[in-house]
Design goal:
Elements: H1 15-43, E1 54-55, E2 62-65, E3 70-76, E4 85-92, E5 96-101, E6 111-117, H2 120-123, E7 126-137, E8 140-143, E9 149-152
Antiparallel strand pairs: 1-3, 2-3, 3-6, 4-5, 4-7, 7-8, 7-9
């Protein structure tokens, strides 16, 4: 019996190459799925606590001072957690203004009166004011979008 000689000129995928290709494909698919899942988690993120931040009702929750060209508002905090900052959005007829402020610090049961420069001649009449609180939980800053305070049609200050 004669042994047939293997034909070394044929090209084929070996078992080792197949395993390597499948592992690479699995790693790529896992990476894509993980990135999509983390983006969805960030989009659906919610504050784990009810912050209980609200506008104070002294005589208006917010008003526009035409002399100083400032939006004036007062907010109060509940008893749950300290607020460590806020994102303030002022939406005018012509343009919107967004400010991230670390000056908005509210201890538990505290209040804060803010003044934001806003020129109604450039941006138009204020259609809405939105204040989104930020809190620190376990050294992580959390922006509580679902607990944002919103008021429409900010009146002039008396």
């Amino acid at each position: 019996m004669s042994k047939k000689r293997l034909n070394w000129k044929k090209k084929a995928i070996t078992a080792l190459m197949t395993v390597f290709i499948l592992a690479s494909f699995a790693a790529a698919v896992t990476s894509v799925v993980t990135n999509l899942a983390s983006a969805q988690v960030e989009e659906d993120a919610q504050c784990p606590l009810d912050i209980e931040v609200r506008f104070a009702r002294i005589p208006f929750p917010a008003c526009y001072d035409t002399q100083t060209k400032q939006v004036v508002f007062t907010i109060e905090n509940g008893i749950t957690i300290d607020v460590e900052g806020a994102i303030i959005n002022i939406i005018g007829l012509k343009k919107a203004l967004s400010i991230e402020s670390s000056e908005v610090v509210l201890p538990k049961t505290g209040s804060y009166t803010g003044r934001i420069d806003y020129d109604s001649r450039d941006a138009g009449v204020i259609r809405a004011l939105k204040i989104t609180p930020k809190v620190m939980i376990n050294e992580n800053e959390i922006i509580c979008l679902e607990q944002a305070l919103t008021i429409g049609n900010v009146p002039p200050c008396a």
